[in-house]
């Protein structure tokens, strides 16, 4: 990678940079989300609606372990962006080396534990009744590909921190396209059922890992894999961990949310309600791809300029990112409120699922137009290396509001209470995030801009 690529983050107009960073990130997330979406459609139509529920049981477990890599990637990338902004190439290289070692150690350990306690984990996450057997088949195979996914997630974020969003996009697109090809061959052509779906996922994760490995061994990256930097250093681990823990905590809460949701919905509505949640969950991953893309594009811009002490540019990046994300979120909101029945029919023809899912989808996405402030606000603190507020704001929506609400509201409103919890927690979290972000801008960025 040419050094000018990262230097551009501190020179070019913010709007231009945000588009340059966000469009590849959005495309990558879109393709990855389409992969999950089409994968679910294939599974629902070629295997059955129970298979959708089974995958929904396994997803939070496998993705939590893989998210160790993503957390290390995002935590280290914040350091790398600021180090490159400050001209400290040595620190960037040392951070990258420690990211590789941490990812290897942690993911290997968690995969071993996940396979050892497979039955207990599947049951805890709601894999009961007719869901258990297909969930176990899928789980045992997918876990072997989780280390490859974890390394890919780590590398993806490092690519973006270097100011190389196109390769980050490719690292998301290649395994996604591969998974769809494998799905067609293993599920449809060879009729391997749940095992075919699982091997398709594992194979695509391996393909993605090989691409990431090639990138860092090629001339496209300035962060080379060097044995001397693989030796873990406590100070570097602590800095990566404090920032990466924000992402890991968020994914941990997401996994706990799945645990509660699957069990509560199974109690209230059985397999049908769990399947409805699986479909809505896929739409949560897919429909918001442009908003998540803006958030990903915003991170290296804010981090680099904060490291370079260009605080006016940091403030500008916050304002523009929120505006772009809010417009995109509103478009998503309109589409989902208008076509929930049509969307549900893509996944299944099961009459009971078709009856329940559209109303749930409308509730879940009811507060979508306001989530831009929530996402950009929490991302900002992570980008500038302030781990504590980043952690608290990341946990606000699901940890402090959503989980208590899904435990309380169903006691009064039944299954409706579960779906109502989504927009209520979004509104509360956005208010809290807006308050802290506004205070931070006034006390930190404006004061530093004045004294600089």
Number of strands: 0
Mean pLDDT: 89
Structural class assignment: mainly alpha
Percent range of helical residues: over 70%
Oligomeric organization of the protein chains: single chain
Strand content: under 5%
Order of helices and strands: HHHHHHHHHHHHHHHHHH
Cα-atom Rg, whole angstroms?
Answer: 21 Å
- The low-pLDDT segments are none
Tally of individual helices: 18
Largest sheet: number of strands, sense, barrel closure: none
Cα separation of the termini: 31 Å
Task: Describe this structure as you would to a colleague.
The chain has 18 helices and no strands. With 452 residues, it is mostly helical. Helix 3 packs parallel to helix 11.
Please describe the topology of this protein.
Blueprint: H1 4-7, H2 14-46, H3 49-85, H4 89-116, H5 118-124, H6 132-142, H7 146-161, H8 165-189, H9 193-217, H10 234-287, H11 289-307, H12 311-338, H13 340-347, H14 351-364, H15 371-383, H16 387-408, H17 410-413, H18 415-451
Q: Would you kindly provide a brief summary of this structure?
A:
By secondary structure, this protein is mainly α. It has 18 helices and no strands.
Output the keywords.
single chain, 18 helices, 452 residues, mainly alpha
């Amino acid at each position: 990678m040419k050094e000018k690529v990262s230097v551009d983050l501190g020179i070019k107009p913010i709007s231009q940079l945000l588009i340059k960073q966000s469009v590849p990130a959005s495309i990558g997330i879109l393709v990855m989300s389409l992969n999950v979406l089409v994968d679910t459609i294939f599974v629902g139509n070629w295997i059955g609606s129970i298979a959708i529920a089974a995958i929904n049981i396994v997803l939070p477990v496998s993705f939590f372990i893989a998210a160790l890599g993503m957390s290390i990637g995002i935590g280290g990338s914040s350091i790398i962006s600021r180090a490159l902004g400050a001209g400290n190439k040595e620190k960037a290289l040392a951070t990258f080396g420690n990211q590789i070692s941490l990812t290897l150690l942690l993911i290997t350990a968690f995969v071993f534990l996940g396979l050892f306690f497979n039955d207990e984990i599947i049951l805890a996450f709601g894999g009961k009744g007719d869901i258990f057997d297909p969930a176990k088949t899928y789980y045992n195979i997918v876990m072997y590909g989780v280390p490859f996914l974890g390394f890919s997630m780590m590398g993806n974020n490092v690519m973006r921190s270097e100011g190389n969003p196109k390769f980050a996009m490719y690292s998301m697109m290649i395994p996604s396209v591969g998974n769809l090809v494998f799905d067609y061959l293993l599920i449809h052509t060879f009729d391997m059922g749940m095992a075919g779906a699982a091997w398709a996922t594992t194979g695509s994760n391996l393909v993605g890992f090989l691409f990431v490995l090639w990138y860092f061994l090629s001339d496209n990256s300035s962060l080379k894999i060097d044995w001397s930097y693989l030796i873990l250093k406590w100070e570097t681990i602590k800095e990566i961990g404090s920032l990466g823990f924000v992402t890991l905590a968020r994914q941990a809460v997401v996994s706990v949310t799945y645990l509660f949701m699957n069990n509560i919905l199974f109690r209230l509505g059985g397999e049908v309600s769990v399947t409805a949640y699986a479909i809505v969950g896929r739409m949560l991953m897919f429909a918001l791809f442009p908003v998540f893309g803006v958030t990903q594009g915003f991170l290296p811009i804010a981090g680099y300029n904060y490291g370079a002490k260009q605080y006016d540019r940091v403030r500008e990046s916050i304002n523009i990112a929120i505006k772009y994300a809010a417009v995109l979120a509103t478009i998503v909101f309109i589409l989902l409120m208008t076509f929930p029945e049509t969307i549900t029919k893509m996944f299944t023809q099961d009459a009971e699922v078709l009856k329940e899912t559209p109303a749930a989808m409308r509730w879940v996405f009811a507060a979508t137009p306001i989530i831009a402030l929530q996402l950009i606000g929490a991302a900002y603190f992570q980008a500038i290396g302030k781990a504590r507020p980043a952690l608290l704001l990341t946990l606000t929506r699901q940890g402090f509001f959503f989980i208590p609400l899904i435990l309380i509201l169903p006691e009064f409103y039944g299954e409706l209470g579960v779906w109502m919890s989504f927009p209520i927690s979004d509104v509360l979290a956005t208010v809290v995030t807006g308050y802290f972000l506004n205070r931070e801008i006034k006390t930190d960025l404006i004061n530093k801009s004045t004294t600089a």
